[in-house]
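TL;DR need structure tokens for one chain.
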Amino acid sequence: MNNNQVPQNTDKGLKNILLGTQMQKNTIAIIAGVVGIISLFLPYAKAQAFGFSQSVSYIQTGNGIVLLILILIAMGAYIARRGGIGFILSAIAALLTIVDFMSIASVVQDSYGIASHGMGAYLAVIATIAMTVAAFIGANSIINNK
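>> reply
TL;DR here they are.
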């Protein structure tokens, strides 16, 4: 290399320099975690009969507090760049929300239209699955790059 040549930067951009690819994947999981926390306070299940309506949020159920703790610890793991721990906790949270969603689905089916899922149920399932998938894609890209 002579003195007239300028060294080429092989990095893909400022975002990769500052955050790195793993942090970009973790950002997706953190955003999904925030959506998951918000979903815990939205109506999870609704029942309507004879002009009366009642709804319950996920946080009011027995598993709501457990799910809140799982999501908060998983988000902390993603912030600390501990994707493996975040993935495990996200997977447990996703399994918990899917099982709860299915149990409410059986009640909805047996209630002949009186009970239904609320917006919080759908958002909780989508958010916890998104946290798990984002962590898995991040872990998979690290394994393939080495």
